[in-house]
């Protein structure tokens, strides 16, 4: 996938979803060890530099590699999409570490559409989707909270990816 994305957008930085990587790691581990594994992996994806992340991952592999080699292999195979993370500003990390907000919206839309089965017209389907989205924030106060959280990240994105965001606003 990375080759396909980079062929269209050559300056792309691919970053894997850390939450999904953690969830996939837990598939290979016993439930009793999940908290310990998560605690050992946290210094890996919160490391300030790529070198520090690699050191923490080496420690993780030494601790858990014998018991759960598939978890170590999973992180090794995803390492190219994990290492851009430490280079990002803290505000960018908060935004890109997970796609759960997007997934939550998609789940709400799927649930609303599935409950109705079929629609007499495209307009009816669009109204259903609109109502599902509006029900996420019935009082209308979420937009103010959302934009407040994104302002710092937007500033960090503009500085990190200089020229890419301002070019789209022209």
Number of domains: 2
Overall shape: globular
Q: Count of DSSP E strands? A: 0
**C-alpha Rg, in Å?**
20 Å
Helix content: over 70%
* Unreliable segments of 5+ consecutive residues: none
In DSSP terms (H or I, runs of 4 or more residues), the helix count works out at 12
Characterize the main sheet. none
Query: What value does the average pLDDT take?
Result: 84
Structural class category: mainly alpha
What are the secondary-structure elements, in order, as H or E?
A: HHHHHHHHHHHH
Task: Determine the N-to-C terminus distance.
Answer: 30 Å
What percentage of amino acids are in beta strands? under 5%
Walk me through what this model shows.
With 170 residues, this protein is mostly helical. The protein has helices at residues 2-8, 18-27, 34-45, 50-64, 69-77, 79-82, 84-87, 90-96, 100-116, 122-134, 142-160, 164-169. The chain has 2 domains: 2-87, no CATH class; 100-169, no CATH class. The chain is globular. It starts with a helix and ends with a helix.
């Amino acid at each position: 996938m990375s080759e396909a994305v980079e062929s269209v957008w050559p300056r792309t930085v691919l970053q894997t979803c850390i939450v999904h990587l953690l969830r996939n790691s837990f598939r290979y581990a016993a439930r009793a060890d999940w908290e310990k594994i998560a605690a050992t992996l946290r210094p890996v994806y919160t490391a300030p530099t790529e070198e520090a992340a690699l050191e923490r991952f080496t420690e993780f592999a030494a601790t858990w590699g014998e018991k759960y080699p598939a978890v170590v292999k999973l992180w090794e195979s995803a390492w190219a999409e994990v290492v851009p993370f430490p280079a990002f500003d803290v505000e960018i990390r908060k935004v890109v570490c997970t796609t759960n907000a997007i997934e939550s919206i998609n789940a709400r839309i799927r649930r609303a559409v599935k409950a109705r089965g079929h629609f007499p017209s495209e307009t009816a389907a669009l109204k259903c989707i609109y109502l599902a989205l509006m029900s996420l924030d019935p009082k209308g106060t979420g937009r103010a909270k959302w934009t407040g959280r994104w302002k710092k990240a937007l500033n960090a994105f503009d500085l990190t990816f200089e020229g890419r965001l301002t070019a789209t606003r022209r």
